[in-house]
Write a structure and sequence with these properties.
about 20% helix; about 170 residues; binds magnesium ion; Rossmann fold; six-stranded mixed β-sheet; binds inosinic acid
Length: about 170
């Protein structure tokens, strides 16, 4: 069965669910009367996205893109590659980028520039996790799940060499 690791970071299923309810409520309030467009950053954010959209009681649309910044390594190469682009245009839309984790900030910085150039009406970020001590580029996070210390975490969509995305909690080694 699913066992949490022995690492320093442990975020349970219940803690994740409670936090996502709060994020969904905040987004609902901020976008009342509008129709936000949520952009999921594959692969890591797929479970967070699935839970977050169900916590937002508003009409919304969504789309997916994929980037690669790590390969199978645990350290960022500093290079971001767009592997899969969006299907839908975002010009004039209220866009929210949905990311799993902001580490150095390099990936999110790249995505903000990429999407800003397509002239959305607004562009915000929802991130499940942030490691502020690792930041190399300052990036805005409007909706944050949890701030964590500098440890490599996995589970709940985040991988450890492509495995463990299916763990229902977040843990570190
Ligand atoms: P950044 O560009 O350094 O901010 O890294 C962003 C991406 O690296 C995230 O979207 C994750 O896919 C991956 N990443 C960073 N830290 C971790 C971690 O602790 N566990 C799993 N993936 C991570
Ligand atoms: Mg990611």
């Amino acid at each position: 069965m699913f066992q949490p690791g022995k690492g320093r970071v442990q975020i349970s299923e219940a803690q994740i669910a409670e936090r996502i309810r709060a994020l969904g409520a905040a987004i609902r309030q901020d976008y009342a009367g509008q129709e936000p467009h949520l952009v999921c950053v594959l692969n890591g954010a797929f479970i967070f996205m699935a839970d977050l959209v169900r916590a937002i009681d508003l009409p919304l649309t969504l789309d997916f893109l994929a980037v690669s910044s790590y390969g199978n390594a645990e350290k960022s190469s500093g290079e971001v590659e767009l592997i899969k682009d969006l299907r839908l245009p975002i010009a004039g839309r209220q866009v929210i980028i949905v990311e799993d984790i902001v580490d150095t900030g390099i990936t999110l910085n790249y995505l903000l520039r990429l999407l800003e150039a397509r002239q959305p009406a607004s562009l915000r970020v929802a991130a499940l996790l942030s490691k502020p001590s690792r930041r190399q580029v300052e990036v805005p996070i409007h909706y944050l799940g949890f701030e964590i210390e500098d440890a490599f975490v996995y589970g709940y969509g985040l991988d450890r060499a492509q495995r463990d995305r299916n763990l229902p909690f977040i843990t570190s080694q």
